[in-house]
Amino acid sequence: MNTGLLLYIPYRHLENRVLGAIAAAGFDVTIAQARLLQRVGARGSRLTELAEAAQVTKQTAGFLVDQLEKAGWVARVPDPTDGRARLVCLTAKAKEASVVAEAEIERIEAEWDRHVGKRKMAQLRETLEKLCEITDPYR
Questions:
Q1: Vertex 46, ends 43 and 51: CA angle to 5°?
Q2: Where is the HTH marR-type domain (predicted)?
């Protein structure tokens, strides 16, 4: 099995567990919507930035943002640095769901610590952070 797949399988497991926890808490969001929500910056993001970060077309990002806005996950607000532009910002609902997601991630990481050991998990994390230096263009 190649390294990329070995990285993806645990991520997919984590993502499915997080989406399940969010759904169990009463939040309704699709995987595509959640992946876009993850990329909204703390101070908001422009649609083109979201599309690029999510690796989807601007039209797809616009469609997802429209859905998220109708469902109360995001709001479009004027960009204070450019009067012509708008920012996509997370709403209180998205921030509440984020708390649920973070708690589930903590549970998953604790399970992984128990399974492989804290030292190996720390090494894995350190290695992945180092790899992000050369693989994450949005860092």
A1: 120
A2: 1-133
